[in-house]
Amino acid sequence: MNRKRFVAGNWKMNTSMNEGFQLLKDIMDRVSESDLETCDVSIFAPFTHLKVFQNTLNGSLMQLGAQNCHHEEAGAYTGEISADMLASVPVAQVLVGHSERRQYFGETNELLAKKVDQVLKHGMQAVYCYGETLDQREDESYIEVVTNQISTGLFHLSAEEIVKVTLAYEPVWAIGTGKTASAGQAQEIHAHTRSILREKYGEEISAQLRILYGGSVKPSNALELFSMPDIDGGLIGGAALNAQSFEAIIKA
Ligand code: PGA
């Protein structure tokens, strides 16, 4: 199965409007349309930037994503952003379940299942993040933890729905820490992920789903990680805030 590579930049809570616009321009200058034919690239920008970015990207193959959405359709949720609002920008993708959302905002697998439903209901794709903490890696419960994150967050979806999801394995201990999972450690979880997807959805669908790795991906380690058989690209935090590094990761 030939899965198209996918590199996503998660900007998190970084860049003012002007800084963000400049960074987007720099990335667009560096990343060619032929790069984008072999690798999908998506920018997960802050909410405030989305409309301007959508206008700027118009006509480019580069895609736009949001970093979160609310799990309800609409209503009295002051300060929140709905999937319907994001679809009206429009954005192509929404991150669901980033570990920082799980850790600082108490988002559970059950809540994330509802967010995935909202994203798909409004015609966007979900990038569903999962991954274990350092404690869970050390006490060897990590396989069980990631299995539960995937099954509770996603396994209510039908076969037609799951193909609109990209998975992103991000071990919490590797995010923003400079510590990357080794290619072997990442491949172990990616292969496990694909095997439980195969059990649930069958060979054809599991072979088509993309599983990204995230956690301190940089130009120096991207190629080794992306060479693993079940790693289909990366979700990039820190290195996505520098056009040169982001470009080098896309080229990898
Ligand atoms: P990092 O972040 O690349 O800065 O480790 C990855 C992420 O949180 O998506």
Query: Class in CATH?
Result: Alpha Beta
Biggest sheet: strands, sense, closure? 8 strands, parallel, barrel
Oligomer: single chain
Total number of helices: 13
Number of domains: 1
Q: Please compute the radius of gyration using only Cα atoms.
A: 17 Å
Helical content stands at 40-55%
Strand content: 15-25%
How many β-strand runs?
A: 8
CATH superfamily: Aldolase class I
Briefly note the CATH topology name.
TIM Barrel
Describe the structure.
With 252 residues, the chain is α/β, with parallel strands linked by helices. It has a single domain, classed as Alpha-Beta Barrel (TIM Barrel), CATH 3.20.20.70. Helices cover 46% and strands 15% of the residues. The protein starts with a strand and ends with a helix. 42% of the residues are buried. The mean pLDDT is 96. 2-phosphoglycolic acid binds at residues 10, 170, 175-176, 214-217, 235-239.
List the defining traits of the structure above.
single chain, 252 residues, alpha/beta, TIM Barrel, globular, binds 2-phosphoglycolic acid
In short:
The protein has 252 residues and is an alpha/beta fold. Helices cover 46% and strands 15% of the residues. It has 13 helices and 8 strands.
Secondary-structure map:
Elements: E1 5-10, H1 17-30, H2 33-38, E2 39-44, H3 50-57, E3 63-66, H4 83-87, E4 93-96, H5 99-105, H6 109-121, E5 125-130, H7 134-138, H8 142-154, H9 159-162, E6 165-169, H10 183-201, H11 203-208, E7 211-214, H12 219-226, E8 233-236, H13 243-251
Helix pairs in contact: 1-3, 1-13, 6-8, 8-10, 12-13
